[in-house]
What does this fold into?
Amino acid sequence: MAACGRVQLLLLLLTAQCCFVLLVAGLRPPASVNLHPPLIAINRPLKAGAAPNGGNAGAASSVSQPRRSGGWKLAEEEACREDLSRHCPKHTWNNNLAVLECLQDTKEEIDISADCNHLLWNYKLNLTTDQKFESVAVEVCKSTISELKECADEERGKGFLVSCLVDHRGNITEYQCHQYITKMTSIIFSDYRLICGFMDKCREDINVLHCGSITTGEKDLHSQGEVIACLEKALVREAEQQGKAQQIREECKKSIMRVAELSSDDFHLDRYLYFSCRDDRERFCENTQAGEGRVYKCLFNHKFEEAMSEKCRDALTTRQKLIAQDYKVSYSLAKSCKADLRKYRCNLDTNLPRAREARLSYLLLCLESAVHRGRMVSGECQGEMLDYRRMLMEDFSLSPEIVLHCRGEIEAHCSGLHRKGRTLHCLMRVGRGDKGPIDNLCQNALQALIQSADPGADYRIDRALNEACESVIQTACKHIRNGDPMILSCLMEHLYTEKMVEDCEHRLLELQYFISRDWKLDPVLYRKCQNDASRLCHTHGWNETSELMPPGAVFSCLYRHAYRTEEQGRRLDPEQHLTRDCKVEVQRILHQRALDVKLDPELQKRCMTDLGKWCSEKTETGQELECLQDHLEDLVSDCRDVVGNLTELESEDIQIEALLIRACEPVIQSHCHDVADNQIDTGDLMECLVQNKHQKEMNDKCAVGVTHFQLIQMKDFRFSYKFKMACKEDVLKLCPNIKKKVDVVICLSTTVRNDTLQDVKEQRVSLKCRRQLRVEELEMSEDIRLEPELHDSCKKDINRFCSAVSFGNAQVIECLKENKQHLTHTCHQKVFKLQETEMMDPELDYQLMRVCKQMIKRFCAESDAKNMLHCLKQNKNSELMDPKCKQMITKRQITQSTDYRLNPVLRKACKADIPKFCQNILNKASDDNELEGEVISCLKLKYADQRLSTDCEDQIRVILQESALDYRLDPQLQLHCKDEITHLCAEEAAAQEQTGQVEECLKNNLLKLKQEACKKEVLNMLKESKADIFVDPVLHTACALDLKHHCAAITPGRGRQMSCLMEALQDKRVRLQPECKKRLQDRIDMWSYAAKVAPAEGFSDLAVQVMTSPSKNYILFMIALAICTLFLVGLLCGRITKRVTRELKDR
It folds into this structure.
């Protein structure tokens, strides 16, 4: 028998597979064997210690009997003959192992007879328990056994040796031994009942979990793989439903994981996955050679392809979940990283339970820590790590903590998004707070997964991000090496730009939200700052945490050290400063975080309540932080401190405001490129932007951004240190010996105002100082207490008229304006001066800017600040105008109508006309009291006489049109007709919307007017309306169609369109609208009465009356006829007179 064994061994060495077939040929079941052997034979595992009853006898019998030529063949057995002929090619019939492989790998849908199934079962059972094969293993694997101490110590003759070699087949280097053990492995793993020790350890769990039967005949060949698959799924389910799922016994758990580990190199050994993925393997991995886990990896890479079958996808997911629980289930990962794991002691932590050491996440964290510390990890291992990090990011279900703790969030917000990492990104979005609150355990699970996968080191790990941002990377970041960590930084730099696409924007912010909460997840920051963090912030290793210094607090510590200056305290020890490289990285992160408040963990944590209270509607880019800054005084203490510190930080380094820097890029390139190129900004760039605010390269966005930043500085004195720095030289030159801040502001403001009034070409106060001065002026305009001189002058008036009004929001100042006519003389003077300043610069009118803030954005976003009120007046009657803003604009118009000095546009346009025509009024005027509209009334009369300059005429026309609609804009009319309006036009005056009804009422009641002053004002209105029909809104509305039909070609102004209508009225061929005809006739009657009551005062008035008369043509004809008649009479009468003789002439 020994000689026979040696002959067979020699043949095996020549041709391993063929000779192995000859070797096992002697193990045919005896003719007398029952194809349904006793239960004990079926139940006995490989390490049972003895062969099954009948099985051993049969084997021994067959060995002792003379062998037929060619040996016993499965193909000759009647039980399998028909199945062979149907499923296996003839060239395999002479090779028992080829027949076995053919039949046991048959597709599920093909039935094999029960007798053949059991014949194959007995054959395989004999193979795995016969002592003869153990002796062959000893001969073939002699050197291997001597190297493997565990196998050398196994008791011989009980089948333990072969099982041990199967367990350690990854360490076998002998070719013949490896071939032999591989064949034995394929036989053992074809049925879970043949796997060493598996039955003893998992029998109870199989029955409890109803994973299948252990009795022959109740399960066919293929269903045996499903039993292991069922146990594997139960093991996964237990991890995902802690305390709720059926518990598996610990020894069975180990057996399940050991089976998964032993089947990790060849996917044929995972029978359930093999049968589930046979077609998919042919479809996706046809050219992938089996062995070393290559087919597994190929299928993993195609897991989410549309053509992948659901059954295969489920089987692959189960195996991936097992890998997540124990990295050794991945053959390629365990093999590639074995040396690195040992080198960096990733599985020798005695403080951790063994189960955690085996987890994929623990392995990744340990090796990632080594990489981040600059240690050498083999390229092969890093490649495997990259694959499995990508795997974790693609499928959230591979993380049992997320499945366990995020179930509610997934069902509520993220169902149906399983593939390609979409569910994970949806959960990230929920974690950001974009879809409602999230459970803390779910948030922590997401953070742990992000740390394990470490997508910040290579964006390609995040498939959802990679696909969404591919186009952006190809265009905006093509200069960066593929896979470089700076790709994410590049994407952040292009956030909210034209190159960014919406889907990429969402995926990027979702990922950055979690990266921003652990400074270690930014590999560049960690590499440059790990020494500083350890020295200054007492941090621990990359994969270690500390309650005293959690990951989110480390960055706060770093940026506090980055921006410490000597002005903030005593000189710091150089050891307390960050290195230059680290400070640059801290600035980079701050620039990125400024794009979204949710990327600043401390800000979001402390300001969550205020964000909801004040900024819930601020959803556009950068609006939330601006909103918090706008409401700084309203924020809770903790939030106010954070926002205040951040704003103070911005004042030192404006480049943190990335959106503002982008908007100001043209100005920076043209005027500020020198300071912008400095890596460490000390406020110079903001100063430069302020200085160049009115350069031609300055666009609206940049101007608005710079102005907003200046406005925010007024909220806190800490933000005004730039005012001192910017105006230092101006104070020395213009305001020497003045030290109080309020006095300096008043001094500089007076200088700026005087220069503006005199239209000087170059302001004496520098541009940078004027901008800083504006911040202080805005702050002073908000509260009268910030202007001590005004406050002291009006104390009595405030107590008398405004005692119930609260300080702040310029409410007291507005109250004084409304009661201006009743104020004491001193207070009246101060308020008039204040109004004059505000009219010249409407930005200082706090109430106007506050009430009309949204309307300014809607209608006047592009208007210059000094023309803001003019722009609002032009849009006052728009349907989109806010009623409160419209009311405020009317108040300011009433104020302007009281004195031409309160209307800068009119004052400039009529600069020459006012002293020319209204000097007598100016002679009696004072510098600080209103003229009650006298100058404007004077200009109105000259407008009717058509004697004004073009610019002045245009402005007076606008005033006439406005006052014709609202009598309150005509102070002289309101003053002289006060009683008449009360008695005759009370209903019209009480109307909320003034559309000229009071003026029309006074015209209609002209004959009833008693006071001459009032009658004169109404007559002046009639006179003005003759000069321009637009001044008469009632008539213009009634005749709008007739003007369009009969006078469209007539240029407006100077009474031309009115004359056109009069001629049309006289022409019987023209039919005017009845209402127009009636209104015209009424106006003719009024003008006739006016001519009688107020005859022309001079030749010029007479000429005007003639030219504007409806009978102008008739009058001119008669005048011309009279002149011609006079000429002819003179000519004829001269000939009749006595002639003088020539002699008399010649004397």
Q: What stands out?
A: Residues 1-70, 213-222, 350-354, 565-571 have pLDDT under 50 and may be disordered.
